[in-house]
Amino acid sequence: MSDSKVKALRLARAWSQEQLAEMAALSVRTVQRIENGDQPSLETLSALAAVFGVSVTELSAQSEAGEEALDKRITAAREQLDAESGFWRMLITAVIVCVLLFFLNRSTAPDSDWSLWVAAIWGGLVAVKGLRIFVFANLISQWHKQRLQRLLRK
Predict the structure, then answer these.
(1) In this structure, which long-range contacts are made by residues 125-133, counting pairs with CB atoms below 8 Å and at least 24 apart in sequence?
(2) Which of 6, 38, 54, 148: disulfide with 33, CB 3.0–4.6 Å?
(3) Is residue 72 very low, low, confident or very high in pLDDT (cuts 50, 70, 90)?
(4) Does the pLDDT of residue 153 top 50, yes or no?
(5) Apex CA 12: angle with CA 11 and CA 17, to 5°?
(6) Who wins on pLDDT, 129 or 56?
(7) Which Gene3D superfamilies does the entry link to (predicted)?
């Protein structure tokens, strides 16, 4: 990490270390350490890059191959986080709707169990999505890469 990069970007915007720390949700001491040459974590680099409106690789002092790998790791991590967040939103929505439907079912047609069918189907869909995100994500990613390589060879 080049200490002059963060400091130069900060000074070019006429920001104090305190302002940068606040915008990046970091402590002032963390900003000071980075400007003094300490190696920041990937999360810290990502926060600083977002504040400055630059890529993480522009802030890091790694080789070009390392920069590409770092950007790919960050992109993959963000995609995984988005997928996991979507799963949890779907699960919470399913639970709330199924509970409401269950009470509606019991109050309007107590002899029928149609809400259980809805819950079973929706539960199956949530389970499949969960397996895809948490269990088979790497396998699916590898298959996509291999398939893309095969298609590009044709």
Answers:
(1) 126/87, 126/90, 126/91, 126/94, 129/87, 129/90, 130/87, 130/91, 133/80, 133/83, 133/84, 133/87
(2) 38
(3) confident
(4) yes
(5) 30
(6) 129
(7) lambda repressor-like DNA-binding domains (1.10.260.40)
pTM: 0.55
The 3-class SS string of the chain reads CCHHHHHHHHHHCCCCHHHHHHHCCCCHHHHHHHHCCCCCCHHHHHHHHHHHCCCHHHHCCCCHHHHHHHHHHHHHHHHHHHHHHHHHHHHHHHHHHHHHHHHHHHHHCCCCCHHHHHHHHHHHHHHHHHHHHHHCHHHHHHHHHHHHHHHHHC
**pLDDT tens profile 94-128:** 999 999 999 999 999 999 999 999 999 999 999 99
